[in-house]
Amino acid sequence: MAYDADVIVIGAGLAGLAATAELVDAGRRVILVEQEPEQSIGGQAHWSFGGLFLVDSPEQRRMRIKDSHALALQDWMGTAAFDRPEDHWPREWAEAYVDFAAGEKRSWLHGQGVRFFPVVGWAERGGYDAQGHGNSVPRFHITWGTGPGLLAPFVRRVRAGVARGLVQLRFRHRVTGLSRSAGSVDTVTGEVLEPSDAERGRASGREVAGTFEFRAQAVIVTSGGIGGNHDLVRANWPERLGTPPEKMISGVPAHVDGKMLGIAENAGARLINRDRMWHYTEGIQNWNPIWERHGIRILPGPSSLWLDARGDRLPVPLFPGFDTLGTLHHIMSTGYDYTWFVLNQRIVGKEFTLSGSEQNPDLTGKSVRGVIDRARSEVPGPVKAFMDHGVDFVVEKDLGALVRGMNALSKEPLIEEAALRRTLAARDREIANPFTKDLQITAIRGTRKFLGDRLIRTATPHRILDPKAGPLIAVRLNILTRKTLGGLETDLSSRVLTEGGAPLPGVYAAGEAAGFGGGGVHGYRSLEGTFLGGCLFSGRTAGRAAAREVS
């Protein structure tokens, strides 16, 4: 039987590139199919901060962080909270991924030229007990070069495969069907879209110029999640998180629409945990958008006062950077879909980092001078641009003007100046002593015991209302769609499973389409730095497994 290739990979994001690179190393012929134009190769990984979850790394040890496989697995399982029969394979993937993160992950990447920023970040700190959600220690390793730096070796390996005649890159090819001709799923059909010179991330048009049909011994689905499809996000929104937000902004372009998941399901694949999702609560509208409803996430330090729409502080331990899903659950119980950070310029300058490669030109451009200048600046340039132009920012010298600006951004004037002043003054009184009953201030002081946070991520405790630390700043925070935690159920060889639990012949899946492994390796929550790594690990696994199966 004639085949066009040994394997067809659907999706040219990080997982698809990793799978294709492994297939090339095994000498297999690959057709890599992608609906977007070639300038968008790498998908969402290009826009990422490049954060990776590593365990007991040299970077951690240099910062006197004592990490271990046992501690990381404890944190993962406490965070995931697996509790369903269909969590069998996600749990198996979780154990395998922690093994990878504590083992060969760093050396494998280092051997391909990937390097890391020396200061390790501390995301999702939890704030509950030792067996609950969160990272017990800093594990967020920023790739030197951010997302583009992480993508580079995999793009290079795939293009080397093109040069060897092993890889065909078929951009502007949108898959519409998977079918069988000899028992296994071996046929991929779809539409050829008209060429587009749209810049990366921008809408590329959907005019159809023709059709295609490719055949191969195996198919790997790496098409991503549903974050750009707000209708599908709302349709899958879990009851446990309340009513879906009326307003959401997008951390991914509209073409991240989840349609390929439905196509795989129609071909016999089992889709599980579709109600598990990871959306951020610190989203701000991009003042210079690339795609529709383009949002950016603030990666905050712990000092901003987090208020709900009415001006009440969020409950313990829902401090900035501690528990994303817990915060989302609380927000949706308030009857409003937005919250506020209230802070001052001293805090914003030290503690605000904006997620994304384009928001961190120093790290993305691998500029040591740029990093030094950022550390020395009063407010980093990208953050200052949002202060000056962002529609969600209010910057004022006095509290009265700040409240008026906050209420002007709301449908109704919910913030009372006198009440906010009492809240801020009460918080500020707790700063006078090195001990306090305010657990957020306790958390701030605990954070500063970690050298990395004390140097570049956490401001010295001070009064928010201190005029010397001003001006005052309020930031309206929106729900930002991002990652799909559920997906196509896969075994440890990345083989897609059917409703009966048997492999769907010829079909593999990796990346977000597979819930980053197993159909939901994160369970209910993520430890952060685990999405890119999940794409790499599951993509590598799928590529190697498919290479073994094809003749």
Quick take:
The chain has 2 domains: 5-223 and 485-549, FAD/NAD(P)-binding domain; 279-480, Succinate dehydrogenase/fumarate reductase flavoprotein, catalytic domain (Flavocytochrome C3, Chain A, domain 1, Alpha-Beta Complex), CATH 3.90.700.10. It is 32% helix and 21% strand.
Detailed description of the structure:
Pfam families: FAD_binding_2 (PF00890). Residues 6-532 form the FAD-dependent oxidoreductase 2 FAD-binding domain. One of its GO terms (molecular function) is steroid dehydrogenase activity, acting on the CH-CH group of donors. 32% of the residues lie in helices and 21% in strands. Helix 1 runs parallel beside helix 18 (531-549) and helix 3 (69-80) packs antiparallel against helix 4. By secondary structure, it is α+β, with helices and mostly antiparallel strands. Strand 6 and strand 7 (184-193) form a beta hairpin.
Index terms:
alpha+beta, 8-stranded mixed sheet, steroid dehydrogenase activity, acting on the CH-CH group of donors, Flavocytochrome C3, Chain A, domain 1, Succ_DH/fumarate_Rdtase_cat_sf
Topology:
Elements lengths: L4 E6 L3 H12 L4 E5 L16 E3 L4 H5 L6 H12 L7 H15 L2 H6 L29 E3 L3 H18 L3 E5 L1 E10 L1 E10 L14 E14 L8 H7 L12 E2 L8 H8 L4 E2 L4 E9 L9 E5 L5 E3 L16 H10 L4 E7 H7 L1 E2 L6 H4 L3 H9 L4 H9 L3 E4 L2 H10 L8 H13 L9 H9 L3 H6 L15 E13 L2 E2 L6 E3 L5 E7 L21 H19 L2
Parallel strand pairs: 1-2, 1-8, 2-5, 8-20, 9-17
Antiparallel strand pairs: 3-4, 6-7, 7-8, 10-18, 11-12, 11-17, 12-15, 13-14, 14-17, 16-17, 19-20
Number of strands: 20
CATH topology type of the largest domain: FAD/NAD(P)-binding domain
Low-pLDDT regions: none
**Can you give the helix content as a percent range?**
25-40%
Shape: globular
Structurally, how many domains make up the residues? 2
CATH superfamily of the largest domain: FAD/NAD(P)-binding domain
